[in-house]
Amino acid sequence: NIKISGNELYAATMTGVYYSSDRGINWQSIGLSSINVNGVEKEFNKLICATKTGIFVTTNNGQNWISKNE
């Protein structure tokens, strides 16, 4: 699953979430690396990820993730 937001791309993968600021030329991991991420969505300043274990949200491009499963 890939989300496109302008020149930025976010990819949900079996090894976490990856981010590209240059239309996919270079990628970097931005978290959840031990989790199979099934989907990713970008809403304003929030990145929302769906996993088998629940929903995770970041507002700082992956520096911190908050579980929304409580």
**First-to-last CA distance:** 25 Å
Total helical elements = 0
Order of helices and strands: EEEEEEEE
The helicity comes to under 10%
Structural class: mainly beta
Mean pLDDT over the full residue set? 95
Number of DSSP strands? 8
Strand numbers in spatial order across the main sheet: 1-2-3-4
Radius of gyration: 11 Å
Strand content: over 45%
Reported for the largest beta sheet, the result is: 4 strands, antiparallel
Structure description:
With 70 residues, this protein is mainly beta. The chain contains no helices and 8 strands. Strands 1-2-3-4 form a 4-stranded antiparallel beta sheet, with no helix packed on it. Strand 6 and strand 7 (54-58) form a beta hairpin. It is globular, with a radius of gyration of 11 Å.
Gist of the model:
This protein is 0% helix and 56% strand. It is mainly beta. The model has no long low-confidence stretch (mean pLDDT 95).
What layout of secondary structure does this protein have?
Blueprint: E1 2-5, E2 8-13, E3 16-20, E4 28-31, E5 37-43, E6 46-51, E7 54-58, E8 66-67
Antiparallel strand pairs: 1-2, 2-3, 3-4, 5-6, 6-7, 7-8
What would the keywords be for this entry?
four-stranded antiparallel sheet; mainly beta; 56% strand; 0% helix; globular; 70 residues
